[in-house]
C-alpha cells in the first residue's frame, strides 16, 4: 500500500459533526455525521487504524457500491467517510414490518442491484476486489430504495501480483456463518 492518504481525500476530524451511532460493521462503529465544509450528510466508520479498506474504497465507483469521500487520518480519530444511506441496512428493512409490503418486482430489482455491484467488484472495477463478507447487514439502502454494498473491512484486492489470484482460498476474515463451505 502506498503511504496512507496518498490516493484519497484527507478529511479533518474537526470538519465532522457527529450526530448518532448507526451501529457497527465488522471492523468499527458507524456514525451519521455532517461533513461541515461540504455541507453534506455522511457516514463515518471509526477505526482503530486505517488499513486497506480506504485504499479499496478509493478505487471503486458504481451506483450499487457505497460512495467513498475520504478518510480521517488523525490519531486516534481514524475513520472512513462515505455517503450516508438513510434507509438503513437491508437486514433492518427485512426484519421490519415494511418488508411485508415487498412484491416480487422489488425483490428482483434488489437482487439485480446486489448482483450488479458484485459483478462490478469482480469484473469491471479498475482493480478486482473480493468482498468476503456480503450479507444483508452489509448492504444499505438510500432514501430512493437503491441498494449499495458497504463494509469493505474484510475485502481484498485480486490482482495478477496477488499470490492467491485465480481462485485460491483466502483466510477467513468475514462472517464465518456466511462463508462458502470450501472457505471454512
From TrEMBL:
UniProt KW Oxidoreductase keyword: no
The GO terms this record gives for MF are: ATP binding; MAP kinase kinase kinase activity
Family matches, as SMART domains:
S_TKc (SM00220)
Keyword Transmembrane among UniProt keywords: no
Keywords noted in UniProt: ATP-binding, Kinase, Nucleotide-binding, Transferase
Domain Protein kinase intervals:
16-184
Can you tell which superkingdom this protein's organism belongs to? Eukaryota
One cellular component term from this protein's GO annotations in UniProt: cytoplasm
Q: Read off the PANTHER family from this record.
A: MITOGEN-ACTIVATED PROTEIN KINASE KINASE KINASE 20, SERINE/THREONINE-PROTEIN KINASE TNNI3K-RELATED
This one is known as Abelson tyrosine-protein kinase 2-like protein
Lineage of producing organism:
Eukaryota, Metazoa, Chordata, Craniata, Vertebrata
